[in-house]
């Protein structure tokens, strides 16, 4: 496809104008780079001669004493924390671990495991019969929702038995209550009530 002479001349003029604009832009960018370099040097000199001494002086007068005080406070807090952990936290954690290990020993007991199995079977049978009587559970050869309900009831029963065993076998110092002495009571006498 050929262009007319008029179009070619217009394109040539536009190309020349674009080259002129590009040249002018290049000059502007070079001048801006020179200005930025000179500004960077000036900012560096001002920072070295004016800002840095003021910052150093402010640090020495205001921040350094606060940092020294803070370091002392942090050391004291670390010392207190160390003693709190060794005197309070570690004994509590070891006590809890000991209780957990004792509960595991109880859970390993053969008689307890047999009791849990028996309770699980019994609860499964009772739940199945109750579900059949109410029409909620149908007897199917494949597992259905009733099976999952029974499993849930079995898990609840096992958890209840394990909790009861744990409550029974755990050491508790707060269970003992001292009796009040008989002579300490004042103003109350008990008289037998007449029979009617």
From TrEMBL:
Spans annotated as Disordered: 174-196
Keyword ATP-binding: yes
Biased composition (Low complexity): 184-196
GO MF annotation: an example: helicase activity
Transmembrane annotation, as ranges: 148-166
Keyword terms: ATP-binding, Helicase, Hydrolase, Membrane, Nucleotide-binding, Transmembrane, Transmembrane helix
Protein name as catalogued: DNA helicase
UniProt source species: Microcella daejeonensis
Organismal lineage: Bacteria, Bacillati, Actinomycetota, Actinomycetes, Micrococcales
């Amino acid at each position: 496809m050929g262009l007319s002479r008029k179009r070619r001349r217009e394109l040539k003029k536009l190309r020349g104008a674009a080259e002129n604009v590009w040249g002018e832009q290049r000059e502007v960018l070079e001048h801006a780079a020179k200005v930025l370099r000179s500004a960077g040097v000036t900012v560096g000199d001002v920072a070295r001669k004016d800002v840095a001494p003021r910052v150093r002086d402010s640090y020495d007068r205001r921040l350094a004493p606060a940092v020294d005080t803070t370091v002392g406070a942090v050391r004291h807090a670390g010392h207190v924390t160390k003693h709190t952990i060794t005197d309070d936290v570690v004994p509590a954690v070891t006590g809890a671990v000991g209780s957990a290990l004792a509960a595991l020993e109880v859970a390993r007991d053969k008689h307890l495991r047999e009791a849990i199995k028996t309770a699980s079977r019994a609860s499964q049978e009772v739940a199945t019969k109750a579900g059949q009587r109410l029409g909620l559970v149908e007897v199917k050869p494949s597992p259905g929702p009733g099976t999952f309900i029974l499993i849930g009831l079995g898990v609840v029963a096992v958890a209840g038995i394990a909790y009861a065993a744990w409550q029974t076998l755990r050491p508790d110092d707060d269970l003992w209550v001292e009796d009040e002495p008989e002579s300490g009571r004042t103003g109350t006498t008990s008289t037998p009530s007449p029979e009617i």
